[in-house]
Design goal:
Layout: E1 3-5, H1 9-13, E2 24-26, E3 32-35, E4 39-40, H2 52-69, E5 77-84, H3 90-101, E6 109-114, E7 125-133
Parallel strand pairs: 5-6
Antiparallel strand pairs: 1-2, 3-7, 4-7, 5-7
Helix pairs in contact: 2-3
Length: 134
């Protein structure tokens, strides 16, 4: 079972509500690891939704599908790296993230970045996750 190690930094930055995350997550030995590539909210037909909410929802659905293919779920996520193009999209993104991570315990470690661009100009969000399961 994973264990959270919090020193108080996450609580100062936003480690509560739907933006909940841990300062560190310890994973016991003898586990399988999954590293998901950067995953945008792009439809499988190649089209890209227009809004941050639609893209974030789709990116999380892709992440869940990747986890499921490995026999894992959201409770197995150790760390989430989140990249947004527009800082003003943070609140909307966090609401979507909260629907997927909810009250997962321990909350995964996280990194949140606002970047100048992603793989295509109209992609607004991209996610990477690291997961582990015994």
């Amino acid at each position: 079972m994973m264990k959270s190690h919090n020193v108080g930094v996450s609580a100062l930055i936003g480690g509560h509500g739907p933006d909940r995350y841990s300062d560190g997550v310890e994973v016991p030995g003898n586990v399988r690891w999954l590293y998901a590539s950067g995953t945008p909210g792009i439809k499988l037909d190649g089209t890209i939704p227009e809004t941050i909410e639609e893209q974030a929802d789709l990116a999380w659905k892709h992440i869940l599908a990747i986890l499921e293919a490995a026999g894992m779920g959201v409770a197995d996520i150790v760390k989430v790296n989140q990249y947004l193009i527009h800082a003003e999209d943070k609140a909307a993104y966090i609401q979507v993230r909260g629907r997927y991570l909810g009250e997962v315990s321990p909350a995964p470690a996280g990194m949140f970045s606002v970047v100048t661009e992603l793989i295509y100009p109209n992609i607004l969000v991209e996610l990477e996750v690291i997961a582990a399961k015994a």
